[in-house]
Amino acid sequence: MGLLEVMRSYSVKVNEFIFKLLSDDFKLKELYDASRHLIKAGGKRVRPFLVIQSCRAVGGDEESVLPAAVAVELIHNFTLIHDDIMDQDDLRRGAPTVHVLWGLPTAILAGDLLFSKAFEALFMCSSHPNISFERLVEAGRRLASAVSTIAEGQALDMSLSGKLKEVLVGEDDYFEMIYKKTAALFKVSCEVGGILGGADSNELNALSKYGEHIGIAFQMKDDILGIMGDEKVLGKPIGSDLREGKCTLILIHALKNASDRQRKTIMDVYGKENISRDEINLVIDVLRDLGSIEYVESIAREQVSLAKKSLEILGSSEAKSLLLDLADFIVARRY
Amino acid sequence: MGLLEVMRSYSVKVNEFIFKLLSDDFKLKELYDASRHLIKAGGKRVRPFLVIQSCRAVGGDEESVLPAAVAVELIHNFTLIHDDIMDQDDLRRGAPTVHVLWGLPTAILAGDLLFSKAFEALFMCSSHPNISFERLVEAGRRLASAVSTIAEGQALDMSLSGKLKEVLVGEDDYFEMIYKKTAALFKVSCEVGGILGGADSNELNALSKYGEHIGIAFQMKDDILGIMGDEKVLGKPIGSDLREGKCTLILIHALKNASDRQRKTIMDVYGKENISRDEINLVIDVLRDLGSIEYVESIAREQVSLAKKSLEILGSSEAKSLLLDLADFIVARRY
Prior knowledge:
The structure is a homodimer. The two termini of chain A are 20 Å apart. Chain A is mostly helical. In chain A, strand 1 (91-92) and strand 2 form a beta hairpin. Chain A has helices at 3-21, 29-41, 46-57, 62-87, 98-102, 104-124, 133-160, 171-197, 201-228, 231-234, 240-243, 249-257, 260-267, 277-289, 292-310, 318-332; strands at residues 91-92, 95-96. Chain A has a single domain (3-320), classed as Farnesyl Diphosphate Synthase (Orthogonal Bundle). In chain A, helix 15 (292-310) packs antiparallel against helix 16. The model of chain A has no long low-confidence stretch (mean pLDDT 94). The interface between A and B is large, with 43 and 43 residues.
């Protein structure tokens, strides 16, 4: 089986667990429908896959960490629901976003519910004899801390949005932001899987580094797809990052190297409410001319190499091979 | 020292811990300011007090559960920030609400941050030698589950709001709603304190029942204060429950027993955007004539008796006396 087939087979297990956890009584149907919506709409379940394979890669039992894998996916979906409200995004995974369908109050609450259900799920690992309470507390501690980091990342993202016009945002600011917004959850997914799988400190450190590097690469690839990707495959409108004035390394690089005319082409579109396909194509041409896409792609590939290198200390296993393949997939993917 | 003095002295410790936990770096000042705002604005810290005294009442060490006490207060404040957005409330604890001061995106995020910080705080209990990892996992499991219950309670509250016009909402619906919205957090506060304090199953059961009963009484008293209380002392506008069409037992009782004319007096104000002091006074007169306030007060007092009775199996201690006094305070309070 190839990577994607294996991912799909785990994804089925994760989904089953989630829908059992999120079953409602009839009085609360609306809240639970809203909380299930994005999960039903799709998603690759990369983060649960990281938990499960990190656990297996250190000799742990995949069944024992399934609840923890579910936990990180629920955390991810909780942040998506709330981020879509904050960013006023209407479309995600090819479907209208939760606040569009159920309104603001229910969307806020659906996110909150996924958050608490995530920790409910995590604690379910305690019923498995392989998992010590001490390791479960450590996993929970890191997961809670990662969620705080993600909230900080979203705050940084919002504070940098629209700012490229006035301020020169540095690459450091960008990397700090995407580390917090995206890579922290990838990293903690690997850590949680490793800790619950019985990793020693070297193994845990390797998995943690791996997760951080592929998380950084994942967000950079997301930024590229947000400009160049196929709208139908992605399930969200192209150019929304530009419309929202999001800070990406592509734009940081481009604006640093642009001529006045190139700068104008970009800035005419940056933060603009309605962007046409033609306008986006003009910007893409400029970004290509400046080598900005290639620049970001090369750094993302570098992160993938670092990620793979981090795993060298682990003995070979099917799970390790899957993690190595996943690292390549992160930058090769088209959705 | 009287109850209120003792509560204040614990409140100082809880606040110190919270402000240390919520200290920011300068880039994230806005997010952290927003997350600290309601906590700075006031509050009685009843729920942390429950954690600490429940722990002490079963022979536990108060220092060891301080992080858990902080956790429940952070959960409480996270729900307040999000509820104020959902209910479009502008004032709380005498100050503008978080979304009024910082806008919707930062308010959502500030709530999320308090939620994750709550679990970060809880896990800090693990550094204390008295607390076993097993008990900490059990406390965390119950806290996460309580937060899900609170989200369900807020959903029920919203679904019952404005409904008294068309549907006869039953007392059962009301009690289910306030159990979930309010009493679940009181209950879990006592449980967390008990579990971490080393309670056996009888003691834990007693504390759990106590917390549930005073939680129910607390919300009923809140409903009364929301109509009859002193605006300045309460820190939020009188009549907001009426304006928002909130479902309270007072109204359920009144509408069941009202004449057509009395019903009209109530319904003229129920769900109305701007309510004058005179209009509220007219409604209060009707509620008094119908005995609705007295009815709710008597049920709240009954809950307090049940709460106190639940604690009978605990040996006498200063903490137990404080819990008994607190039960009386819950219905006697004017804010």
